[in-house]
Design brief:
Layout: H1 2-7, E1 15-20, E2 25-30, E3 37-41, H2 45-52, H3 60-74, E4 86-89, H4 92-100, E5 108-112, H5 113-127, H6 141-156, E6 161-165
Parallel strand pairs: 1-4, 4-6
Antiparallel strand pairs: 1-2, 2-3, 5-6
Helix pairs in contact: 2-3, 2-6, 3-6, 5-6
């Protein structure tokens, strides 16, 4: 719920709540306790993995094709972009990405675009043949899809940071 995310956010400015689900990605945008706009994108961790990834790790071509699909869908959210909004989530997958990116565990974790991009680069290196044993990234294609969706969302909607909130209850748009 948007209200639960708002209650965990100390600022009173605009908030964008992101949830990468299995079959779709949802976002809710607003400044008060309730969202003023919501959108469901037809990209999710499982659906994107199922549609694009035949290998684990995905091949470079599979990653490129998935990026094109995800980019096209993420651009549907551009009209909801609000200047100065804080991007937040309580998704377990994004928490895992933050931890794997070197963010210290906590109730509020700030994952920068740069740190997330370095994590994505590790996935890309795997797709190019870097041994799986040389890195601690999960090998599931749904993890790869979640990372890719987060990356494209942050890039195209121009977020420098995503705040990962402790999931005291499921916080979804």
């Amino acid at each position: 719920m948007f209200a639960a995310a708002r209650a965990q956010t100390p600022t009173t400015g605009p908030l964008v709540l992101l949830h990468i689900g299995d079959e779709q990605t949802g976002l809710a945008v607003g400044q008060g306790a309730e969202p003023t706009a919501q959108l469901a994108l037809a990209i999710g961790a499982e659906s994107t993995a199922r549609e694009h990834f035949r290998h684990s790790p995905p091949s470079p071509l599979e990653l490129e094709n998935a990026i094109m699909t995800v980019e096209d869908e993420v651009t549907r959210a551009l009209p909801l972009r609000v200047a100065g909004a804080e991007l937040v989530t309580s998704d377990a997958a994004i928490r895992e990405i933050a931890l794997l990116s070197g963010v210290t565990a906590g109730q509020r974790m700030a994952l920068s675009l740069d740190a997330m991009e370095r994590c994505f680069d590790r996935l890309a290196q795997r797709s190019l043949g870097r041994p799986i044993s040389s890195d601690n990234l999960p090998t599931s294609t749904s993890f790869a899809a979640s990372l890719l969706i987060l990356r494209e969302f942050m890039h195209h909607l121009r977020f420098e940071t995503i705040t990962v909130l402790q999931a005291s209850e499921r916080v979804t748009p």
